[in-house]
Amino acid sequence: MLSSLTAQFKKHEPLRAYAQILIGCIIGGAAYPLFLVPNNIAPGGLTGIATILNYLFGMPVGVTSMALNLPLFLIGFKAMGRVFVIRSFIATVLFSAAIDLLKFPPLTDDVLLGTVYGALLLGVGLGLIMRGGATTGGSDMIARMVNKRVPFITVGTFLFIVDCLVILAAAFTMSSDAALYALICIFVSAKAVDLVLAGMGSAKACFVVTNHQDAISRRIMDELERGVTLLSGVGAYTGEKRGVLISVVSRAEVLPVKRIVREEDQKAFVFITDTHETLGEGFSNLQGE
Predict the structure, then answer these.
(1) E-strand spans in the chain?
(2) If you average pLDDT over every residue of the chain, what do you get?
(3) What is the mean pLDDT of residues 217-239?
(4) pLDDT category of residue 269 using cuts at 50, 70 and 90
(5) pLDDT, tens digit, for every residue of 170-220?
(6) What is the rounded CA–CA span in Å between residue 187 and residue 239?
(7) Distance between CA 34 and CA 26 in Å, rounded?
(8) From edge to edge, which strands make up the β-sheet containing 269-274?
(9) I need a labelling partner for 257 at 20 to 30 A (CA). Which of 77, 182, 188, 199 fits?
(10) Residues of 52-65 as b/e, b for ≥16 C-beta within 10 angstroms?
(11) DSSP letter string, 244-264
(12) Which of 41-50, 92-101, 114-123, 268-277 is least confident?
């Protein structure tokens, strides 16, 4: 049964990946006519350069972005995996086309609102594209090639340098305000990408260090119907052996967990953390990822 489910998952994985890429391109591409281009926000990277050229010469952002990216794809083709390059090429073409073909009227002429909401849309779109195993920029490939030849220059560092150069160009060609708004856009879109990639799960991971782990775990399983993992721990200072209990619960179940621990062992040590994404029984379907 499990092997059959795994086979089905692998069979449909490319379809899911391309669906995410397509949806990501539409969402990310819509950010430009709705918010970014009307407010002259250059969101870093090659699309940022294309936005600056649009401001100076009226060149279409999508076509210009694709023209800038294609040579970089040709240069970086051999350095990257075949599937990654093909998906990224498709994503770049779709993303560039979406920017120019989605003829949405601007939603606001307030530059700050345009920056924040444009960055959110762009980040969500890019995050979905990355979840589909692709990227929209040939600059990513060049960054990986540079990192292979000069290891102390990380991919993130290289892309950060590119973004800084775009922001400087925006400051000189547009205005210092445009450059500052571009910084906000890059920051917000990066956070949105992280949220899409890591997930926005509201579950909590509860860690309990206690000498009464059997009683506590039994009550959590019986009263909350949540799974529990039991570990053995040793205090580094005292050398005392203690049980460690781990249970992932919903936000609403945190208070009942604390109540159970308090009633069973008032000397227990408890810490609770957010989980970005929770997959498995009782939460999101692992096979759906």
Answers:
(1) 204-210, 229-234, 241-249, 269-274
(2) 84
(3) 88
(4) very high
(5) 899 988 998 999 999 988 988 888 788 766 666 889 999 999 989 999 999
(6) 45
(7) 12
(8) 229-234, 241-249, 204-210, 269-274
(9) 199
(10) bbbbeeebbbbebb
(11) EEEEEE-GGGHHHHHHHHHHH
(12) 268-277
Structure tokens at 3: 């092997």
CA distances from 242 to 231, 257, 258 (A): 9, 19, 18
Neighbours of 236 (CB within 10 A): 7
Phi then psi dihedrals of residue 233, to 5 deg = -125, 160
| Residue in the structure block whose two tokens are 């109540």 | 259
123/109 Cα distance (integer angstroms): 20
Band (pLDDT 50/70/90 cuts) for residue 100 is very high
List C-alpha distances in Å: 273 to 202, 252, 263, 270: 10, 14, 21, 10
CB 271 within 8 A of CB 226: no
Average pLDDT over residues 64-74: 84
Residues contacting residue 50 through CB under 8 Å, at least 6 positions apart:
59, 61, 62, 64, 65, 68
Q: What is the pLDDT of residues 116-132, one digit of tens each?
A: 999 999 999 988 988 88
Residue type, 233: G
Distance CA 166, CA 281 (A): 46
Which sign, positive or negative, has the C-alpha torsion 69, 75, 79, 81?
positive
Calpha distance 155→147 (Å, rounded): 6
Which has the higher per-residue pLDDT, 191 or 25? 25
